[in-house]
Amino acid sequence: MSERFLENNHVVHVATKAVLATNADLSEAVGKVLDCDVMSLKNADGAVFICTVSANAGGALTFVVAACDDASATTSANISFRYMTIKAPDTIEAVGEATSFLTSIGADYVYVFEVDAAKVAEQGYEFVQLVGTEATDAAAEGAVVGWLTGLRYKEDDIGTQVT
User: Fold this and answer.
1) Measured by CB atoms within 10 angstroms of the end CB, which terminus of the chain is less buried, N or C?
2) pTM value?
3) Three-state SS across the chain?
């Protein structure tokens, strides 16, 4: 294997206990927002967010990827991203590109969102964030992990990318 995942990617736990505790779960009450941590793309060519859902009572979320001006997302703009919906164990059900993705989140599903750093730079920003807004009220349990792809420096040289 000539490319090593751990050397070329920086994994980030973007939906930490603090993020999920605010919402109690991924999808709890209509209008609730899942704001994942903001990541810097300064040292990367792109970002990937993976949302895994282990249980769902029928909720729906609208996902967007936002380019942000700083680590607090003081100013942001929704940008286009690529997405993939996977039903367990590995059946791909949808693939596309959008600026907003509404889905009735399903139990045992994985949602993958990918954005190029160039899309973020077009807005004049270097930070990126995955945001999910509930459209249908129902509890859903899961997790969100992000990672930076195409690192410009070795993994151990770039430090934290969430500030």
Assistant:
1) N
2) 0.85
3) CCCCHHHHEEEECCCCHHHHHHHCCCCCCCCCEEECCCEECCCCCEEEEEEEEEEECCCEEEEEEEEECCCCCCCEEEECEEEEEEECCCEEEEEEEECCEEECCCCCEEEEEEEEHHHHHHCCCCEEEEEEEEEECCCEEEEEEEEEECCCCCHHHHCCCCC
State the CATH class of domain 8-149: mainly beta
Domain ranges of the chain: 8-149
Report pLDDT digits (tens) over 93-129: 999 999 999 988 888 889 999 999 999 999 999 999 9
Is residue 48 a contact partner of residue 91, using CB atoms and an 8 Å limit?
no
Question: What is the pLDDT, as a whole number, of residue 92?
Answer: 93
Q: What percent of the chain is modeled with pLDDT above 90?
A: 42
